[in-house]
Amino acid sequence: MSSEPPPPSQPPTHQVPVGLLDTPRARERSPSPLRGNVVPSPLPTRRTRTFSATVRASQGPVYKGVCKCFCRSKGHGFITPADGGPDIFLHISDVEGEYVPVEGDEVTYKMCSIPPKNEKLQAVEVVITHLAPGTKHETWSGHVVSS
From start to end of 51-119, where are the E strands? Predict the structure, then answer.
């Protein structure tokens, strides 16, 4: 008796059930609320604002206001105008100077309309004139200063 297995009469073949390769397989994906709805942001940053809009804003009057809120991680906030009226949107790219604005900072700014309907306004060329007293201010590099 030999311990060798008998030689196979045919090489092993892999059988594929009929019909599996005939139809294209749909890729299984989890549903995403954003799939198919990705649109570019309508908020013009300093980088994406048109030259003509920048010129119009820079030629406009300088307004005063107080920073209502600003979130560095989101990159935007709002300014409450000194003369009243609705809050003005503020983008991180339009802040001049070395400090990140915080609630209560007095600022000066110019205004630019937000496309496509140009119904809302955005603050541009924002300069912090007075730091809010008793708050900690952070520079863009991350250094914290108490005022």
Answer: 63-71, 76-81, 88-91, 95-96, 106-114
**How far, rounded to the nearest angstrom, does the alpha carbon of residue 65 sit from its chain's CA centroid?**
24
Give the C-alpha distances (Å, rounded to integers) separating 65 from 53, 124, 140. 22, 13, 21
Structure tokens at 36: 């198919």
- Structure tokens that stand for 124 in this block: 């541009």
C-beta separation of 63 from 111 below 8 A: yes
Q: pTM of the entire structure?
A: 0.63
Asked if omega into 42 is within 30° of 0 (cis), the reply is no
Per-residue pLDDT tens, the chain, 147 aa: give them. Answer: 556 666 656 655 656 555 555 555 555 655 555 555 544 455 566 666 676 777 777 788 999 999 999 988 888 999 999 998 999 999 988 898 888 899 999 999 999 887 777 788 899 999 999 988 888 888 888 888 876
